[in-house]
Records
---
Amino acid sequence: MNTELPSSWCRARYVVAAVLCLLTTLGTLPLRELLDLANIVMIFLLTVFVAAVWLGRGPAVMAAVLAVALFDFFFVPPHLSFAVADGQYLVTFAVMLAVGLITSHLGALLSERTTEAESRERETRALYQLARDLGGALTVGQVAEITQLFLATVDMDVTVLVADTGKSGSTFHEFHEYGSHELNDLEKGFARTAHEKRTIVETDSLVGMGVAIVFLPLVAPEHVVGVLALAPRTDDVDRMRSLRPLLEAVASLVAITLERLHYAEAAQSSELQVAAERLRISILSSLSHDLRTPLTSLVGLADTLVQRQPPLDEGAIETAGIIRDQAHAMHHLMSNLLDMARLHACNITLNKEWQPFEEIVGSSTRLLTALLASRKLEIGLPRDLPLVHFDAVLLERVLCNLLENAAKYSPPGAPIQVIAGTREQWLEVSVGNDGPGFPAGRMDQVFDLFTRGEREPAVAGTGLGLAICKAIIEAHGGTIVAENRPGGACVRFALPLGTPPPSMEEEEAP
Amino acid sequence: MSETTTRVIVVEDEPQIRRFVCDALRREACAAIEAATARQGLDEAADGKADLVILDLGLPDMNGIDFIRDLRTWSSVPILILSARSAEHDKIAALDTGADDYLAKPFGVGELLARVRALLRRHWHGEAKPHHQFGEVEVHLSRRIVSRGGAEIHLTQIEYRLLAVMLANSGKVLTHRYLIHEVWGPGYADQAHYLRIYVGRLRQKLEKDPTQPQHILTETGVGYRFQS
């Protein structure tokens, strides 16, 4: 019924214009003898002007023509005839028609402008209200609902499509749909195009089929957050076009709102992650404390027995010594397990500093003094090794694990080699022994958790050592490999060299 | 030992650990005073007669760092920290606050007594000696002469200053921050790599095998310790 109203009103306006002209004629006829013809022309022009302002351009033009005809017929002598006695009146007709047309044009323009200003004001107020409503929205569902309610006032159904940015930022995966009807594949295709090309997609050919025909990309400052798919409830394509600016404004408001929600969500989830990480770290550290305390007592009390005055008999001293060593071994195992748990937590914080690699060679061999006492250590470190950026505590653990393995899996007294050097942009370190080597065919598994070189565990250990080394080296952006070489086994790892900070040279003066 | 008994306060909440630490100290003819809480420990130390405080960093009633800060406001008694090995930042904070040395749990009685003896020696005899000898190196601080195996060794100013600070604190763990502050002065705190480069050079000049130093030792993640 909305569409019928304008056309009937259109016809009626012409009738009204004609009636106005007739009324003017009837009103002025009795005055024909009293007024000068020039004044009667004025009255007709007024009528045309009124028609222009109230009724619009078409009826005004008709009124102008009708006014000239009526004026000629009733007022210009000879009366009641279109004939003109005096040729001068032709000028009057021409001017009257021209003035009528011009005023009708101006009047119509004026009323059009007024209508336009009013509708624009309404639009602005509606957009302002929409912005306020969206500002209060807390979920994407609410955003979609508010948008739907708003666009229903202009006879449109809308589906809000939100791009899933969960996995990898800009690359597009799937849309989440929020709307009254589920989009079909064709519509989804259009939506995808609008999203990828960042342009408005319109498909006039589908008008009236109850499907979405306008797809507006939701362009937020950072990225395209989704698409608005609009399905008009009417077939009025022109009206659709005239609404374009409004729709674009709606799209940009929705885009900004969705982006705001996205960041709020991201902030909240990172807060959660930090809290979970903190919890994990505090559990690990309290576990580490609680396990270490009884082990410390065990080691200390066993030591006390060994050193007791007067001394215990030899068997008891030996037993106490074994208890102490086993407690140490337990501590070692526990440290490895806790380290592994810490390293497996998604983000380990490396305490990286620029330092010479030599330092941790010295400190780890000192930590393993007892184990390496019977070994000949062959250390090959060039004097001019550059500084490397690494976490000293973790790298020391790598070197200790490798040295321990080298000692464990080689005959007593056999030498152990630690060799470092640079190759291209890497610091390469290898730790080797003269043992039986890794079992052939299982080289790539030795770094897996709980894998050990031999199937039958002849030597105590858990198989955690190399897995920890791998985790630490990889956290540093390096690589680690195990290999057999003639007469022994060897583990090699490489750390990226990077650019060390400039060193300060002092003036030579003792 | 001195004519009066050596008094050592052991602040540790775990009774079994406290027991073996005190037993070991008593065998060394020390008077071991047991304290299960930080408050008790501070009370025991209040008379100012203690020669050494052994402090567990994980006490239930007070943060170990606060304990050290409290004690350091009025006492310079040596403090030996007992701590978990993996908590480097705790150790650094304790050392920077005024602790003298640390021992990682679990530790043997032998290690404990070695640390205790070294700290007591420093406490009684002071550290300001003009002449030091370690390995085949001799240092005459009064004459600024360093020699190795009889031959004089040339040290740059910074190398010499670094060596002097280490000798003055022999046996003590020195954090990176402390050494940088002492040798380079304030404003170099974020230039830890200078320190590491110079320690490396000192080792090359003074150690028999710089890759396995016997005197200028690395305390990984914490700092250095000089041991004669």
---
Amino acid sequence: MNLERFTLIVESYGADSQQWPGDERVEALEFSRTSSDAMSLLDQAAELDQHLALFELPNSELSVQRIEMGILSALKQGTLKQGRLERLFSLV
Amino acid sequence: MVEKDDRRVVERVLAGSESAFRQIVDQHSQRIFNYARRMTRNSTEAEDIAQETFIRFWVSRDRFDPSRVKLTTWLHRIAHNLCIDYFRRRQLQERQVPVQSDSQDSPDTDYELSIRAAVVNKALMTLPERQRSAIVLCHYQNFSQHDAAQILDLSVDALESLLRRGRSKLKQILAKELE
């Protein structure tokens, strides 16, 4: 691990090490404890992470119920036969 | 690739079991709805996208190969493509009938966001779609970089580049808006 790669990781994934690439996490964590530049990068990234955490979604129980009921209703009507709708969609 | 607990359910879905499909809808609908909602910032559109995601998954289930991709990754990939379709449709509509800037985003009216949260929300919406998708998938949906790259059909390097540019732009916007 070097400062260049550590910078790229933190600028991409933020300050939470759980979000970092799994195969580099341990090395990156060790590096962060020994470099003052790394610590400063973590502080800056943590600030943005805190802002991102503000974007919480409100309760959506009713929306989820509507989604599930819509799908159930389509199943009951028998309109979801495999292959039947494929022609209408550009599928993944 | 399929999580251990999902394996039997997926096998049953692939064999055409409606009850197994309902189980998958039950397990994944909240997460798919959240992704669509964060991408569109519109509950009604997000509900439609989530519903369509599962319908497409069901009618084209023979295209899903559980040995190559996780179920949740596959569902998010379908939802992501539907979000892109939604943005294209909206751009076309806006070209035909110019929309007032206040209603362009059709934001949720039930959001009770603090001013700071509203600024963050708005800043996210100003990012290009691919940068926003990358941040939503990694930061909010908690996908690993490998899975997020698979959903967006990108290399991990390209995903990192999107994330870095997206976060940098957000930082600039928020520094200006929140000072």
